[in-house]
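input
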Amino acid sequence: MVREDDQVAARRRRQEKLGVVVSDKMTKTVVVEVERLVMDPLYHKYLRRRSRFMAHDEKDECKIGDRVRIEETRPVSKLKRWRLVEVVERNTDAAPVAG
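output
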């Protein structure tokens, strides 16, 4: 029989990403933009690459501009495969962030 500790160790560790909320217009869903740096193979210059993820926000607590941590999870809907873990930093600006 397999112990519970072995099952947890055998299961893949879930990815976590840190990003900024760019849209909160949907119910219980936020769009999070994650930025990363990639080195250009020819010019050896760092370029900014962005990815947008739809994340499940159960309590509907996120607002545009908030820095959040999201975690990979089972598919919640057609495009949602991430869920909100925590709001790292609240947006204090009154103006929304352009996406």
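quick obs: The radius of gyration is 17 Å.
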